[in-house]
Amino acid sequence: MTQYDSVGSLYLNVCELLFKQTELAIVERVIRPLLRPDDKIVEFACGTGFYTKRLLSWTASPLTAMDISPVMLGIASQSLSREVASGRVRFTLGDGASKTSYAPDQSIGFFDRAFASWFLNYARSRSELVAMFATVALNLADDGVLAAVMPHPTEDLAARKSAYSQCPLDRTWPRLDYVQELGDGSGWTSRVHLENMSLETTHMKKSVYEAAAREGGFRGKLEWRGEGLEETGFGEKWIQQFNLTAEEYRIQKENPMLGLLMVWKS
Fold first, then answer.
1. Which residues are paired to 92 by β-bridges?
2. What is the pLDDT of residues 226-245, one digit of tens each?
3. N or C: which end of the chain has fewer CB within 10 A?
4. Has this prediction a pTM greater than 0.85?
C-alpha cells in the first residue's frame, strides 16, 4: 500500500491550491510548445489525473498514464471515463522504479514524449533515482524527451531547510520540513505539508538529479526551466492570499517550490 492509497480523493483538494495553479501555469508555458500532433505520450505518476486532463486538451495524441497507486488510478479513470472509452487515454498500474515498458504492445522506445509531475522526488535513494530515469528512458524513442516537475534545483539543501523553517515559508502552502540528510549526502528526506495532508518525499541535490539522468540512459541536452511568480502572473494573488509584505514576497520568490527538468534521450 502506498501513501497515496490512503490519501485518495483528498488529493483532489490539492488541485485547488494557489500553488498548484501557479505550477500549472509554469508547466503549460514550457510543455505545450513541445507537443507535436503525432506524438505518443506517456505520463508517469498521473495521480488523480490533474495533468492527464491537461495533456489531453493540449494535444490530439493518445496518452498512456501510469501510477503506483490503484486508488489514484481509479479516481483518474472515473473522472476521464469518456476518454478511456474512446481510447484517447489508457491507465496502467506500475512501479516507476521497476524497468517496465508501458507501451500498448510492451515494445521498447515506443513513446515520443514523457511527462512526470512529482515522480522522481519519490526516489528513496540515489540508486532508485537512477532506476526511475532508466524506466523513462526505456519507454522513450531515441529522439524522445522527458519533462519533469521536480523540487527546486539547488546544491545547498541546508540553506533551503533553514529558509523553509522561517517566515513566510513556514505559513504558506505547501510547507516543507527537511527531516534527515541521506547517508550518502545526495539529498534530504522531507515532508510536504498541504492544507489537509502530509506526504513523505525526497529532495536530491541538483547535481545528483543530473548525474542520475545520465546514468539512467539520457545522453542528450539537459536543462532546467521554470518561470517565477511574476512571470506567470500569480504574484499578486500570492501577496493577497497570504498577506505578504514586500520583504516576505521577495523571500517567497527566491525560494520556489519547483523546477522543470527537460532532458533529451539522445
1. 66
2. 878 888 899 999 999 999 99
3. N
4. yes
Helix (H) or strand (E) holding 239: helix 235-242
Q: 175-188, pLDDT tens digit by residue?
A: 999 999 999 999 99
Average pLDDT over all residues of the chain: 94
Across the beta sheet with 258-264, the strand order is 89-93, 63-67, 41-44, 111-117, 140-151, 258-264, 222-225
CB neighbours of residue 101 within 10 Å = 17
E strand intervals along 88-244: 89-93, 111-117, 140-151, 175-181, 187-193, 198-204, 222-225
Q: What domains are defined for the chain?
A: 3-154+205-244+256-264 (3.40.50.150)
**3: which 3 cell numbers?**
501513501
Tell me if residue 264 falls in helix, strand or coil. Answer: strand
Q: Are 194 and 17 in contact (CB under 8 A)?
A: yes
